[in-house]
Amino acid sequence: MSRYRIAVIPGDGVGVEVVAEGIKVLEATAKVVEGLGFKFTSFGWGSEFYLRHGQMMPSDALDVLRDFDAIYLGAMGDPRIPDHITLEALLSIRRGFDQYICLRPAYLYPGVPTPLAGKKPGAIDMVVIRENTEGEYADVGGRIYRGTEAEVAVQAGVFTRRGTERVIRYAFELARSLNKKKRVTSVTKSNAMRHSMVMWDWVFRAVAQEYPDIESGSLLVDAACMNFVRKPETFDVVVASNLFGDILTDLSAAIVGSMGLAPSANLNPERRFPSMFEPVHGSAPDIAGKGIVNPLAAILTAGMMLEFLGEARAAASVKQAVEKVLVEAEVRTPDLGGSSKTSQVGEAVVSKVAELDREG
Ligand code: NAD
Ligand code: IPM
Ligand code: MN
């Protein structure tokens, strides 16, 4: 009997709506996979908590989360509070639990319209691996002479050899595990960022030599953006720094049809700490509370959680159920051109999980 203890942080805006659907789907997998079970513990942390207590989560939040098997998060961010305050909570979990791998797959599902002309289902099938604990997001810097003409702001990028090497190595190992011949593309900006990113390129070439069976290449981030649009089929595994990985994955979500289809996993591969699973999208205040947010990104994210927990059968059933809902195209939210409600999409996936089980 595998009963997993999951810490749930719905967070703000649409985070609350999509996490509710993800939990329904997880419960559905527990009904069809013998021995699988979940104990969800929900934490009401986020912007409302901040308005009451002056912080997004309690000071001992990481101690509270430490003993869970995984963390399932919706989104953080509220127009009433500056983003650099609200989002620090999220970043402190990623850093504090050394979740140095951020996995963000992008797949063009059958039945989903893409803004790119002439791309067939499956033609876009990539995973972006984003360094998730340092780089441009390292919390190093400061401001002096605030509010005066002499004001200075310094935001340092921190690239360690260890941090760079481990994410690059993970990318090659992932490519190797994918069986088919897969290419690893590293994305930097070493023509302008002459220290950190020149080191990154150097480490990438050194690690690549250890994987002669895997094709590899480097692109500058501006050219990579162009090629995500022009020829996305040339990407399999992409590895990039924290900021570049962030930007590239809004783009990869857009070319496969919607932010509402983009899952994400923040992993501590050594499992010394819990990993955290959250969709790529944010709290989407423009549509929050309307019941129209697409929950599929959060549902696919729950599937990634199952995969990481070692529940391959349950993970596959979530993925297949989502695929079926998409290809049948009867139930879909407005971002995909439909008029269904968030909960209807969640329920459609739940029924498909059961149906797939009956079909064996
Ligand atoms: P966003 O991802 O929330 O929304 C961007 C656009 O995509 C919006 O028009 C939104 O309606 C649409 N969208 C996003 N997810 C969707 C879904 N599942 N279904 C349908 N449409 C969807 O990005 P933003 O507007 O730049 O940010 C809003 C807030 O969220 C900000 O406070 C930001 O800092 C925060 N944010 C948080 C996270 C996170 O918690 N992981 C991630 C990104 C942004
Ligand atoms: C994401 C988000 C976060 C990030 C923000 C909200 C800090 O955009 O998860 O993609 O940049 O990591
Ligand atoms: Mn982002």
Features:
binds manganese (II) ion, 360 residues, two-stranded antiparallel sheet, 11 helices, binds 3-isopropylmalic acid, alpha/beta, binds nicotinamide-adenine-dinucleotide, Isopropylmalate Dehydrogenase, single chain, ten-stranded mixed β-sheet, globular
- Please tell me the CATH architecture of the largest domain by its name: 3-Layer(aba) Sandwich
The N- to C-terminal Cα distance equals: 21 Å
Placed side by side, the strands forming the largest sheet appear as 2-1-3-12-11-4-5-10-8-9
Number of domains: 2
Mean pLDDT score: 97
- Count the DSSP helices: 11
- Looking at the structure, the CATH topology of the largest domain is Isopropylmalate Dehydrogenase
Summarize the structure.
With 360 residues, the chain is α/β, with parallel strands linked by helices. It has eleven helices and twelve strands.
